[in-house]
Amino acid sequence: MRFVRSITTLRRLAGSRPHLSRPFGSAAAILAPSESPSVAEAPIFEYLEGFPRPDPKHSETILAVPRAGPKKIVAAKERKAGRVPSILFEQEKGEEGGNKRLISVRTNQIRKLVNHLGYSFFLSRLFDLEVRPDFDSDEVIEKVRVLPRKLHLEAGTEALLNVTFLRAPSHALLKVDVPLVFRGDDVSPGLRKGACLNTIKRTVKCLCPADIVPPYIDVDLSELDIDQKIIIGDLKVHPALQILRSKDEPVCKIGGIRGA
């Protein structure tokens, strides 16, 4: 059970560091009930210096309203009214159940966030989400922190068809496709010689405690020469995160000199 082994690894890391101290809660209890820690042993996860953290200036509360049902005719009416049909659910039971709530969000707000952050970065960013009876109401039915899980676009037009959100309380363990940001290309020995950068991966799937989901992972190219590569095992991430890929998988490689 790969997921259970991941939880065990995170607990071992948390137990060896005083700054990691929050329980994994229901998600961990369902997957590994015999290992679930007591509330008194709750570890807390915090961002560490030297690792990327979300920029607070990009924080925004996503507003939502209840949706009448999953039928196509309802979804079509929502899109025509400038709303995106959406689903809010729990990770442990997925879209099949898990406290699922049908909602709609404003098309303009989601489009603005995606255009501003970028597609992959939108899907690795936590947001506050408020469900209200209608968008002009001050009454809040539910307020929860969420991770955008899926974003469906129409082929050709890229119109927003639907968005899936995952509840992200502090105790949750989230599988996130974290974007890779390549840095140091201006000083890379291989690239300065005229070689090409062959990018093999743009994102990497990670198992993340909800409080420390990274907005991206840095990939340092500054010392890479011709025919050298960076693999998954070379990536530096927060010690409480686990990359769910083989350490030997390549991320990028410096190819031969152009025109040689």
UniProtKB/TrEMBL annotation:
Gene Ontology MF term list: 5S rRNA binding; structural constituent of ribosome
Annotated keywords: Ribonucleoprotein, Ribosomal protein, RNA-binding, rRNA-binding
CC per GO annotation: cytosolic large ribosomal subunit
Coiled coil: none
Record-annotated Large ribosomal subunit protein bL25 beta domain positions: 174-254
Any one GO BP annotation for this protein: translation
InterPro entries (UniProt xref): Rbsml_bL25/Gln-tRNA_synth_N (IPR020056), Ribosomal_bL25/Gln-tRNA_synth (IPR011035), Ribosomal_bL25_b-dom (IPR020057), Ribosomal_bL25_C (IPR037121), Ribosomal_L25_dom (IPR029751), Ribosomal_uL5_bac-type (IPR020930)
Domain Large ribosomal subunit protein bL25 L25: 64-165
UniProt keyword Cytoplasm present: no
Name listed for the protein in its UniProt record: Ribosomal protein L25 beta domain-containing protein
Organism: Acorus calamus
Species lineage: Eukaryota, Viridiplantae, Streptophyta, Embryophyta, Tracheophyta
